[in-house]
Each structure stands twice: as C-alpha cells, then as structure tokens.
Amino acid sequence: MSIARSAAAPGASPPRACDPVALEIIRGAIGAAQSEMEALIERTAISAFIREKKDFYTALFDADGVMAVGSLVPIFGDITRPVFDVFPRETMNPGDVYWYNDCYASRGAVSHLNDQVLLAPIFHEGAIRGFVMSWAHFADIGGLHPGSISPQTTDIHQEGIIIPPTRLIDKGVTNEAALAIFHRNSRFPEQSIGDMSALLASVRLGAQRMLEIIERFSARVVEDALAQLLQRTRGHVREKLAQTFDYGTYRFTDAIDSDGHGSGPIRMRISLTREKGEDGQDRFIFDTRDSDDQATGPVNLLLNPAVPGMALGIYFLGGDRGQVINAGGPQSLDGVLLREGSILQPREPAPLGMRGLTMMRLLAAINGLINVGGGSAPAAHSAYVVAMLRGSFTNEAGESERFLLVDGLGVGYGGRDHADGIDAVYFVAQENYPVEFLELSYPVRLRSYGIARDSGGAGRHRGGTGIVREYEILADRANLSIRIDGVRNPPWGVRGGMSGGSGSAIVNPGAPDERTLDPLSDGNVLGKGDVLRIVTGGGGGFGHPFDRSVEAVLEDVLGGFVSPERAERDYGVVVSRGEVDEAATAARRADRPATKGFHRMEYVDAIR
C-alpha cells in the first residue's frame, strides 16, 4: 500500500518545494553560473592584475541578500548590507546596478579601496528573487602613488578615491558622470574603463543565468533550494565545530612583523568559546578583542564579522563537492566580538591598503586555533608578496612612457596532515605572472625564476616552498614598493614540523653595490641595469621531520626543494652524490630530537 506525499505523518516536516534531485541540479547550476561570471571577467578585463593574476570574485545571493554561492575565498563579508542601508530593496528596479568600494561604510565587506564591488538585483514577475555580485582589484584608483597602495600611507584618503554605495545604473541607464569621475582619478584610465566594462558584463551575465534557472524551476523551488543549501552548510560546519572544540575557550596568537612605520610586531589574539546557551543549545563565540591596537601604517584589517565564519566554513567543508561555499559558514558562529581601535577593527581614517598581510596572518591564526582545539589544520603559510615597480621607459617611438608593474608573488603554504604544503601559490586560485608576459608587457627582463630551496618548513609533510625571481631593470628609472612579511615571525610549524623560511629583497646581489631592502618599504630607487632579486617565504612543516620517508627527502634534494645540508640537519637523511648514505642516515636518525606543539625558530608549547 502506498502513502500519498501530501499525507505527512503527525509531527513530520512538511514536504519541501524543492526535491532532492532538483536540489542537486540547482546546486550545480548556480555554481556553473558563478564560475561563468568569473570566466567572463578573466577573458575581457584589461589590467594584468585581473586578467593574468585573477584577482576577482563573484557570488550569487538569495532574495534577502544572503550569499548562496561564492568563490573559495575566505575574505567575503556581508556584501549586500551596505547597499541595502542606502537603497532599501523596495526602492530597487529591474536594470539597476549598485557600486561601492567604501571600506568603512561597508564594515569591511570590502577591505581595501582598490576592490570595486558591483551588485545587481534579479527581478522575476515583478519581485526581487536574488542578487549577483562581481568585484575585482583595479590597478590604480588615485592616491599617494601609482597603484594606490603603499607602505607610506597613514590615512585611507591617501589610498585612492572612495565610492560610497551608489546606484551606478538606474533602470538600465548608466550614470556616466559617476564613471567619468572615477576613471579621471586613475593614472591609467584605459585600464580602469576596460575593467569596469568587464565587471558590468559579468553581473549582467550572472543575472541572466539566475533568471534562466528561476524560469526553469520556478521562483518558489529555487528559493527553497537556496534555503536548503544554506541550512546544509550551516549544519555541517556546526557539526565539525562541535567535533573539534570541546566546551571551553581556546586561544591562539599570531603576528605580523611591522606596519612600515616603526611599529611591530603587531599581534592578533583570537579565541573560540564553546558554551551552552540558555536554551541548551551550543553557542560558538569568536573573539578578537585582545588583539593589539591599530597601526599607523596600512596593515590594518577592517574585519567584517562574517569573515571568521567564512574561513572556518571553507576549512571544514574541505573541498566537499556536495557542499556549497555560502553564508552557512558565517551563520555557524553565534557571535563575533571585535574591539574598535584594534588592528582588526581600526577607526576611520586608518589606512587599509596592505591589509592582505594581516588577513593572511589571521587565516594562519585560525588554523592554529583549530590545532589547539584538537583538529588537524595545516601549518602556517607565508603572506603573499607584492612588488610594485613604477617608473618610465623609452618606447619604440623614442617617447617616454610611464608604467606600473604590480607583481604578486607566490609563497609556500603549510604542510597538512595528509600531504605536503602547496608550493609557489599567490592566493587560492590566483596565478604568478608568466615570464613571457612580463617581458612583453613591462621594461624588465627575468634573469631567473624558480623554487626557493630550503624555504619550506621541515616536517613529515614538508611546508610548501616560496619562489625566487630576478628582474633586470630595463626602464630609464623606477621606484619600488615591496611588501614582505614573516621575516621576524616566520610561518610556524605544527606537531613537530618546523617553521618556514623567510623572504627577502636584494638589489644587485653579489655585486659591490649590493643592498638589502627593508621588507616593507617604498621609495626604493632602481636604475637601468640594476638587478632585483626577490625571494618569498615558505610554509611551516607538519609532523616530525624524522618521520618523513627517506625516499621523499631524497626526491626533494634531487628536485631542488631541499639542500643536502638541510636534509641532514633537519630530516636526519644523509645524501651524498645523489644517493642516500643508509648507514649514516640510520645513525643520524637514531638521535631523534624532542619536539613541542609548535615551532617558530624553536619548539614552543604555544605561539606568543
């Protein structure tokens, strides 16, 4: 005997509008729409940092502005709220597009001014059914120096033009005057115009794809599908939090070296508390209030309250293809506590341009917090390096032409409980510039580009390695801004793994006029024929180095990742003439060094 679907048992949940099969189809469809938006930006943007570096993100939201699917990047805040605060949803119309880059007005939803956000509502049968967003890092938006970001800034107004939430397109009509003002503030307006066109095309495409999904399945079914996916992610992350953290408070500290103005190290102190609420349900509270005060220089991170949960969510989802990167991560936390005036919640107008250093250290600290709680998160990673070369050269017509090369350089990521750390990664899916592209596009010649040997922290699973780039300057004159962190406080290792290597910037290495640059500095003058060598840091190791297989250590030595000297010192493996000396290795490994929970230049019970 069969039972009709509508005859639900007493106390059972009512049937969902979206059945399990449709749910998986919609999950795949919204993911495909989000990816297609990113592909369009990549193929049509003008500036190298977007087109080649791929510093852009897209996302889709439900009718309430809650993120339904986003990029695998733990820096998204509450993107829609800043627009809703100025333009309530009932005032929106089909064909509208909204724009902002205002960090303080958005509570850090966008965390430095170069990132431009476009948001468009999706209308179906006269009602808002969702939103689509595209954002990208624009190469130059005015400010103190070309590129807009500099260690020298002390005020956000020195970092470029600020766009409050603005209705850029009203019922399909573009506010050309607003765009003209914005492009006029750029030293490279052609790039700015092209990049904005790419972003606009992306949100149009996203809106079209979402409308197609709604028309296929109905607004009611899609609404229910997004709610189910959100609930699924939130439930999964909370379950993982409960498995990792017992009741109590867990703490971790990490630090950036300097703010470029004489202050440092600057520490971020975070904690996670699991407790029982008055209703008997678990509560998870993330607290940053003990972090150091805000900095004079531009390393402040205006942390949106959604970011810690997003970072934890991405970790606990672990690449599960059945899950979706959405607001379920932020919703898994019951509270995020911030202290105004701290490095993670600075007061306006504190500069924010180099908040990437602090963001990367915060993400490493969250890994540390998970390890303290009993999880097995990766060891610490390096913060990606940014070299900004500005100047002029004589072009083929014999005229002086200015240029701006913003080169983001890959670093090593931390060793994991199941694998080595990833080598030479800039940030998530973003890429290092190819040599051919650099030499064709800028007045430089690449003399070398490869792995930075011994930069990965030793461990059962080795930390990822950084890179070495050597540029010969072909420009008539150039001025270098460099951003390297983790020199004084290198990325920590965990479970017996050792800390990763540090980065450096050296002009004319090996020559009589060799000089080492301050790792966070601007105004470094370079001339034609000078050679700039940049080395980036590696990730920390995971597990005792003596537990790494002899075969893996030999492979690292032969591959140029580890030197024979470090193989013997750190791994206890003696390599001579390309082969393992088994007797010497056995003797060396018999003297197994004692370890502690973490390692930063020495073994410690906790990072301070």
UniProtKB/TrEMBL annotation:
InterPro entries: Hydantoinase_B (IPR003692), Oxoprolinase-like (IPR045079)
Hydantoinase B/oxoprolinase domain span: 19-545
Protein name: Hydantoinase B/oxoprolinase family protein
Superkingdom of this protein's organism: Bacteria
Protein species of origin: Aureimonas populi
Entry-linked Pfam families: Hydantoinase_B
